[in-house]
Amino acid sequence: MRPFYFIHMENEQFKKARDSAVRMLGYRAHSKRELRDKLRQKQHGGDVVDEVIESLTEYGYLDDYKFAVQFAEEKMKRKSLGSARVAYELRQRGVDSGIIERVLEGTDVCEEEKAAALLEKKLRGEPVDETNRNKAVGLLKRHGYRDIQKIIKEYNNGI
Question: Which DSSP string corresponds to the chain?
């Protein structure tokens, strides 16, 4: 197998598209569809873009599963997003639903704890009552948590 940079040396369009893709991947990980869309926006031809995606995938620079794991960990741990919101955002980026399911099953984030910490931060330690119930429910929905009533009940019991 020849090294990555020797493949398609005669094709200038391929080299330009590949260089653009590698530069984008240098900033952050991308899903295959995300990178494909960005390369097409840069006016690279469809066949060339497909070759670049295939080549980067073959050499391990582009992997939807690794991207989804990294993305889910970032969003769930640092941004306190729930699994429903993470799944939605991964679908928006073109990740296959089977991969999303595997990634979310494999996360070690306790959603109830993250949701309670989020409520604690936003409500400043106040219990959820009739005056701030809509605020709490909206906050948890926007962050993609499921079983909101259970989370609120556990939060109130923990105060």
Answer: ---GGGTTTT-HHHHHHHHHHHHHHHHS---HHHHHHHHHHTT--HHHHHHHHHHHHHTTS--HHHHHHHHHHIIIIIS---HHHHHHHHHHTT--HHHHHHHHHH----HHHHHHHHHHHHHTTPPP-TTTHHHHHHHHHHTT-S-HHHHHHHHHHH-
* CA–CA dist 125, 133 (Å, integer): 14
Tokens representing 94 are: 């073109």
Judge whether residue 8 has pLDDT over 50.
Answer: no
| Residue pointed to by tokens 């119930």 | 133
CB 31 within 8 A of CB 67: yes
Q: What is the pTM of this model?
A: 0.85
Gap between the terminal Cα atoms of the chain: 61
Q: Which CATH architecture has domain 4-62?
A: Orthogonal Bundle (1.10)
Residue 77 above 70 pLDDT? Answer: yes
* Ramachandran category for residue 31: left, alpha or beta (phi over 0 → left; psi -120 to 50 → alpha): beta
